Amino acid sequence: MIYLDYQATTPLAPEAREAMMPWLTGPEAMGFANPHSPHRAGRAAAAAVEVAREQVAALFPSGGRVIFTGSATEAINLAIFGRKYRQLAVSTIEHAAVLDAARAYDAQVHWLETDNNGIVADAPIPPGTNLVAVMQVNNEIGTIQPVAELACSAHAAGALFLCDAVQGAGKLAPPDGADMIALSAHKLYGPKGIGALWLRDGVELTPLLHGGGQEQGLRSGTLSPALCAGFGAAAALAKVRMAEDAAHVATLWLRAREILSGWTLNGDAERRWHGNLNVCKDGLDVARLMSDLRDLAFSAGSACASGSGRPSHVLRAIGLSDRQAKSSVRIGFGRYTTLGDVEDACARINAAAAAQGV
Predict the structure, then answer these.
(1) pTM of the prediction?
(2) Residue 106 has what pLDDT?
(3) Rounded distance, CA 45 to CA 295, Å?
(4) Which region, left, alpha or beta, applies to residue 161 given φ > 0 means left and ψ of -120 to 50 means alpha?
(5) Which of 220, 280, 300, 328 has the most neighbouring CB atoms within 10 Å?
(6) Which of 228, 280, 304, 346 is labelled catalytic?
(7) Are 278 and 142 in contact (CB under 8 A)?
(8) Structural domains of the chain, count
């Protein structure tokens, strides 16, 4: 199978797997120890957690701290429900983790619109807004948002700025000016089951989970040294390889665009992460396409909307009709995708679409 769904998850880096293994061993090496225990084995596990924390924190500016969570979704919920806000301003193309949390929060929500290229406008923030939430890179169409400008506008309005950096962390420079940043290990070649919230110094939250008071009192529960170690190793590797990885996906992007030249690009062609290619072929039956290409792993427009029967809210927000949204596919590639993978897959996608007469 050719894997082209890097926005859904990334392969585990061998370096991350190697870092995890000592903390998955049996009783002989004490790798299973609880990092919150005071004995020697527990202290060793705790030290591994703190090394990982420093490695993840190195992806961001100084002047902040990292809180480990079970996922980026949990991190986002902690950022939103961990403070009292009177009014939120949220972009219409956020991930469901942000959209649903904002809708569930007991406050007025102002929706920030996007243009037809998928870029959130730096519009005036409504008076009384306490929190602005805009993602760094859109998970469906790959557009890179002007987060520095938006954060500046948020601060001028007296609001905090929350950035979902799940698709950008370890791939791009950190979102400038953010007060809270959510990320996920498995989107940057780390393990599933762990995420983090970066908090700027001085930003205070109240916990959602109560119990042992772990994670600086903000996230009770026993941490997994293995998951933390894998996350840290993946973050450290991503930081070193950032320019190399970006150049690699740019090469793959250009080749994919050449082969799929008859398809319409969804999202801005320039202001984007080039590991994301969302394209539309009017009249395409995406379900049939995926059935015909079962040994290719790609997404029907949006992995988050796939199977729901609903068109993508992101594609609708940039002006696509329901028909066009349902005729779009998302192809994602990254560090471990080869040029041959992209050429083979895109040629086959073209042929399968042509067999439908579109």
Answers:
(1) 0.96
(2) 94
(3) 40
(4) beta
(5) 328
(6) 304
(7) yes
(8) 2
